[in-house]
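Lab meeting minutes (informal)
Scribe: AK
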Amino acid sequence: MAVVRPVHATASLSLTLRVTLLFAAGSTAVLLALGQLIGISVERHFVELDRDVVEGKFTTSAALLSSIRRPADLERLEARFASMLVGHDGLALRVDDASGRLWFASAAARALSQPGSPAAGSHAVAPDARSRAGTLPVQWTHEGRTFRGLSRELPSALADRRAFRVTIGVDTAHHDHYMQSFRRTLWTFVAIAVLATGLLGWIAARSGLAPLRRLGREAEGVTASRLDRRLTSGDLSVEVAELAATLNDMLARLEDSFRRLSELSSDLAHELRTPLSNLMTQTQVGLSRARSADDYREVLANNSEELERLARMVSDMLFLAKSEHGLAQPVRDAVDLHAMARQVLSFYEALAAERRLGLALQVDGDAVVPGDRNQLLRVLTNLVSNAIRHASAGSSVNVLIGPPPRTTAPAGGGTRAQRALSPTIAAGHARIVRMSVCNHGEVVPPEVLARMFDRFYRGDSSRRHDTEGAGLGLAIVRSIAASHGAGVGASSDAGLTCVFVDLPAG
C-alpha cells in the first residue's frame, strides 16, 4: 500500500513561484527602505528651512529688543513686532516678559501657553531648547494648523536688564501637504513596482530554470533498460552543468551497480544450476530401478557432497553480502601474522604433501597488525588453498610476510601488463605489512589478474574446469581486506604468481 507522506505547504510552491515571490519581496523592501530614507531626508530638509526662517526672525527680534533703551520705547514694541510679520502669513510670534505680561501675540500664537502653564486651545510648549540644534521642539496647533518653532529669552537694553521670552513658529501646512503627496506617490510607485518586478522576476526565473526543465525531460528517458543514457551539458550554465555532471556520475554508478547485480544474478544462477542438476540426475538415476543398499549409500554420499557445496556457496555469499553492507565489522585485536601463517601451513601440510608441494614461510620484521583474527585467518586460508590448487606439482608455495617492496613491479621484472595490481585502499598509512602467497605454475594473463577478485570469476575455461571452488575465495579476501582498510593485489610473471594483501599496521 502506498504511503502518503504529508507535504508542507511551502513544498507545493514551484521554484519559479518561490523565486518570483522572493524577487518581488526583496524589491518591495528595497523600495520601501529607499522611500523611507528619502522621506526622512526631505523632512529634515524642511525642518532646516523652517529653522533658518525662525533663526532669522530671532536675529531681527534680538535687534529690535536691543533698541529698547527707555520705558517709553516699550510703547512701540507691539507695532515693531507686528511689522515683522508683514508678508509672512505662515509665521506665528508671541512675546512675553518674565512677569507674564503679554506684549505681542499673532493670532496663531495668542492662545499658546507658556512652559509649565498649559492653556486651552494650545498644546504644550517644550522647555527652552536652544541647545537642540537641528530641531524645532516647540510645536502647537491652532485652528487645525500646526506650528513648530523655537522659544528663547532675549535681553533688552532697559536699565533693569529686563528679558523677553520670544516664541516664533512656522506653519507646516505646506510641508505636510507635500509629504502626504510624496507618500501617496511612493505607495503608488511601490505597488506598480511590486507588480512589475514580480512579472520580471517570473520571466527571469522561468528563463533561468529552463535548463533544469530540459534536464528533467531528459532524465525521464532514463530507465532500467536505458541506464547508458547521459544528460547533455554542453550549452548549460556552469551551475546547471555541474548538476548535470553530478547526475551523469550518479547514472554511471547506477549503471555499474546494475551491471554487477545482473552479472551476480547470472553467475549465481549458473553456479547453482550445476550442483542442483547433479543432485537431480543422481537422484533420478538412483530411483530409476531397485538398487542395493551400497548403491543408495553412494548416491546419498554424492548428494551430500553437492549439498555441502551449495551450503558453502550460500554461506560465502551471505558473508560477502554482510561484509559489503557493513554488517560484518571486524574486531580490532593485535594479530600475529607469523603465528597465524604457521598454523595455516601446518593445516595444509597433508594436502600439500599429497600434491607433492613444499610449503615455506618467510617473515621480515614486525608481523603484528590490528585486525580480526578469524577474518584474517580466513584470508590466509583462502590464499594458501588457492595457491595449492594452482601450483605445479613438485614446486613450493611460499608465504611472505613483511614490508612491501618500494615498487609494485614483481621481482624479476616482467611486462607492464603482468605487473602487480597496485592496492590503493591501504595507501597513506605510516606502516604497511604485506602478506603474500606465491606459487609456481602457469602465468596468469593480465585480463585474468584484473578480474580475479570478482565474485564467481575463475579465469579461462581451462582453469575453470580444473578449479574446485565456487569462485568466491578471492572475492571474500578482497571484502575482508576492505573492511580492514587494506588493499589487495596480484602479480604473475615468469611462472610465479603472487597474491598479496597490504595491511595497515598502525
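Next up, CB showed the second protein from the same session:
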Amino acid sequence: MYRYNDIDQRMVDERVAQFRDQTERFLAGELSDEEFRPLRLMNGLYIQRHAPMLRVAIPYGHLRSGQLRALAAVARRWDRGYGHFTTRQNIQFNWPALETIPDILAELARVEMHAIQTSGNCVRNTTTDAFAGVAADELADPRPWCEIIRQWSTLHPEFAYLPRKFKIAVSGSLEDRAATRVHDIGLQMVRGNAGETGFRVLVGGGLGRTPVIGEVIREFLPARHLLTYLDAVLRVYNRYGRRDNKYKARIKILVKAMTVEGFAAKVDEEWRHLIDGPSTLRDEDIAHFAQFFEDPDYAARPGRTGDFALRLAEDRAFARWVERNTRGHKVAGYRSVVLSLKSTGSPPGDIRAEQMEAAADWADRFGFGELRVSHEQNLILPDVREADLYELWQLAREAGVATPNIGLLTDIICCPGGDFCSLANAKSIPVAEAIQRAFDDMDYLHDLGDIELNMSGCMNACGHHHIGNIGILGVDKNGEEWYQITLGGQQGEAARLGKVIGPSFARARVPEVIGRILQVYVDARAQGERFVETVERVGIAPFKESVYGAHH
C-alpha cells in the first residue's frame, strides 16, 4: 500500500493549517458565506440539512487497519458514532460541528488521510475493483496506476476548475467490478499483441440527470502514455465543455455534441503535442509505484483444510455465508471476505465505530492489515486464510456484519437521501429499511439469487439507480415524495441503463410493488436464469401488467 513521503505529509499538514485559518476567519465573521463556500468545498465540506457533512477520501478504496481505527475515533469523538461509505469508496460524516473540522482533518493527516478533492469541479477520487491485487481473474493490478493517477490529479493546477466534477475508474480484471462504463473516463487494463500492459479508454459515461454508457475512444493505449493521454482528454474537456449550464457541463454532454469520433479526433490532435513529453512514464516510474503493492508474505498453504471442509458440510449457515460473502483468491488457501453493511434495520453503507474497530482488528489478526471499501458500500478483508474463516464468521456475526446477502436483493446500494442530503427530493433510508424488512427471509432471498437493487433520492444518482437490476428513484410531486421504478439496468462489462416501468408510487407501496415484480420473475424465470436475464428475455411488459394492471 502506498505510504506518504515527506512531501506528501507536508502538503497535507499545510492544507490542514490553511483550512484551520480559513475556518477561524469565517467563524469570526471575516469571511462571508460566499467567500467561505469554495474554500470548504475544496476540503470536502458540504452544508447539509442538519449539519456540515465531511467527505473523507479513501483513495481507490484502500485502508490500513490504523486508518480505519482513526475513522472510528473521528466517528466517536466528533460525530454520532458512525460513518457512511459511499459509491465512490469514500466515507462521509454527517454530524460534525463546523469548528471541529480542522481538528478532524489534523487527526486524519496523522494517519495519511485527507478530504482534498472529494468535492468541487476537479478530478475526484479514482475508483477501482475492491478485489484489486487478489482477484483470480486479474490481468494486471490496477492499484499502482490508480496511485499514479491520484498523484497526477491531486492539486493539478490546470484541472482544478473543470466545467464539472470529473470521475475516473480503473479495472484490471476480466470482469469489470469498477463500473468503468459509467465514469467520465473508464480505463480497462488489457494486454497488447506482445503481452505488454495497456489500457482500453472509454469516455463520456455517467449517471445523474442524463445517464450515458461510456464509449471506447482508444482500444489500446500503451501504459507509458497514460498521463499524456489523460492530459489530452482533460484539456479537450476543459476547453470545450459547457460552463453556462451545470446540467450540461459533464463530459458526456460534450462527447454527445461532438460525437465520439469527433471527440476522439480532438483528443488525438491535442495528444500530438504531449506524446513522449515529460509526463511519459518511464519503466522506473512504474516500478516505483508497483513496489507499494507487492504481495504480502502469503504462507504456502494447502487448499481447503479438513476442518474447513467439515464446517462447510456441517453448518448450513456458515456454508451460506461462505457462498455469498467470500470470493476466490489468486492464492490457494485464501479467500476475500465481504463484511455486509446491509443488515436489516441498518442504513445501507453505514458502519458504527465499534464495527470499524472490530474490522480493523480482524484485518490485523486474519490478514495483513489491509481493508477495502467497495462501491457497493461494503467492507472487505482481502486476504483471509480459509482455515480462519469459521472463527472470523462467528466474530462477524456478533458484530452484525455477517448477513449472508452479498449480491442479493437486500444488499441495497443507497445514497443518504433526504434524511441528510439537501439536494435530495425524497428519503432513501426508510424505503431501504422497509424493503429489507419485507424481504428478510433468507431462504427466499437465496432462492431469488443475484439481484442488484439500487436507490437514489434524486436525479444526481449517487445510488447508481440507473444501473440497478431494480432501480428506485425518489421524486418530488407537489411537495410529496414518490418513487419511480426502473428495471433491467446492470453494471459491469455489459453495462446498460434500466427502463422506467411507468408512473411513480407512494412510499408505502414500494415494498408491495417490489414484491409483485419479484413474483413475475419467479413465475417467468427459466432454470438458472438470473433476474436481469429474465427481464431482458421477457421485456418489462409483464412486470408493468402485474404492477399497474392489464389496462394501464
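CB comment: The mean pLDDT is 95.
No objections, moving on.
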